[in-house]
Amino acid sequence: MAFIPAASASALTPDDILYMETPGHFTLSADGGNLVYIRTAGTDLKPPANNGTLMYVDVNSATELALTGPDQSVTACALSPDGKKVAYAAMPREGGPVSMYLTNLTDRKRTALSGVTDELAGSFLFLGNDRLIFTGAPAGAATDSEVAIVADELPGPVILRTYSLKDGVIAPISANNDVITIWEPSPDGKYVLYKASPNPKSWETGATFRYVLLNTLTGEEKELFTLVEGYQDENQFAWSPDSSDVYIEKIINGGLRYPVENAAELLVYSPATQKLEEVPLNWERGLHIDIFNSDIEVNPFNGGAYLFLADGTNPKLVRATRSNGGWKMTTLNGRDAGNIFAAESDSTGSTIVYNYNSASSPPQLFRAAVSGSGITDPVRLTGLNQDLIQKDLGTSEVTKWEGAEGDTVYGVIRYPPGYEKGKLYPLVLVIHGGPNYADFDSWRDTWEFPYHLITDKGAVTLSVNYHGSTNFGLNFARSIEGGNYYSLPTEDLMTGVDHLAEMGIINRSQVGVTGWSNGGILTLALITKDPTLKAAVSGAGTADENSQIANTNGIVMDRMYYEKSPYQDPAAFQNILPVYQAENVRTPLLMMIGTKDPQVDPSSAWVTYRAYKEGSQAPVRFVLFKDQPHHMTTPETQARKIQEELDWLDQYLFSSL
Questions:
Q1: N or C: which end of the chain has fewer CB within 10 A?
Q2: What pTM was estimated for this model as a whole?
Q3: 3-state helix, strand and coil shares in percent for the chain, rounded to the nearest 5
Q4: Where are the domains of the chain?
């Protein structure tokens, strides 16, 4: 069947994606009446370009209003335990220093806070209703004035400190000598749970973290347990509204020589009984893991919690309640079940606010009641992306096929506007990063992964949850260890293409591929194995492990997935690394990276570019973005990345149709 391009009526532009509105950091008051969140326009942008606006929602009347104006860009916020006031940090949109404010939600009166430090403004929570808590160096700690850097030197302590909302006094509240990385105060202000390590970013074997309960009234600290974790591990602590229980997400790590976050289980601790116990999830895949939304898995109410369980592309929302000394798990059903990706509960568990979205529907916040196993009477609370949702965004679905090792592999298909069954469309594989991440049935369009700008050109996209992805079980996530880092995922990608061809969706001879981070890495591997691909875009990718281990992320990834380094066993890596197979490439390749990328060393990208330039029989283009990190932070560079990508696909994939 001939390819017919999509209708032009949808007319998506890069700005539709670059400045898409997102509801972040939403928090519901214990009585279920007040909701605050930060509405941002765009992703990864540094202030003032992120245009963060603090929003308030009267949940009962489903009305919302902005608490900050167009002159401020909000960077962080916290709702008081009584739900009556919100503290936030903001900077002028035209640029300038960060300030902090306290707003009364009853009369909307705003008060500027004095004596604010950069450490406080960076990240804070309420400790009770009258203080803020944050982390920082101890008072009087020496500033870094050394002219030399000593490799792997232990960092100085990072302790808990408080800020009084009454008089602006800052005081220490912990006396630890190690580095606190995550903390969560109880709503009544009596306790703080934190985790700390002498060297959280240790790259050799992982770091030993202490999990500690601090009594803020007595100063007593109780070590609950210790755990060896990786420097990238981020887990959630969440207190019940009555402060009787604190839930602890416990990371289950894979990794050969260094821990990698692959799954999670749940613990609960009661200060009154001093009892630490495991919450039996009765679910092999464990808690849902989203490394870009690390504080949404557990949402307590008095007597239990709402939990997100890992279920591949669509997390399972369950209600966990204590019952006769045990735990009862109830899977929730309803109109939006399966596409709820974050939630907050009132203290009774009878009302929730949640983020609904899908691969073809941008996010909105909803209020709903919970009765038994049912999510009922959903009411939309937000009106985000009004211009975007008026456009034809096509449709989407989850599909599955037999991939590497005979395992079932899941992927997300996004169809172009005006898709007609039976007609054959070009395909673009859009490969997720990680690899310990997943492609969800969720709206994830960003400058890195502009799915709908691609489908708007009349193509189908497929996002594959290749071996190594999370949320499909520990064994699936660990399957790429020990020499399978490239082989299993690339087989999953190629069988995914064959699957869509067999379904009669795509033209097998018109396939391109794009990805960022590990998606860029796998793009470079895939084109050494499949010479039929018409176009390839590798963002922040490398095919060379030797120079990649110059940075911490590189050596850690090497230790996670390989038994030896490329310097310890060079022969093994010569059989694995795509850089040694560049002569097989027949696909036009565009490479892009930031010159200050700390995750993928730019030198390794340079090595890859030159190897592919010498070996490939097709064009190779290399674009570097000045002074940009892994997640690029300026609108100009993000827009240039998207335009380079679309132009490359136009030239080598779509122009050949």
A1: N
A2: 0.94
A3: 20, 35, 45
A4: 22-112, 391-656
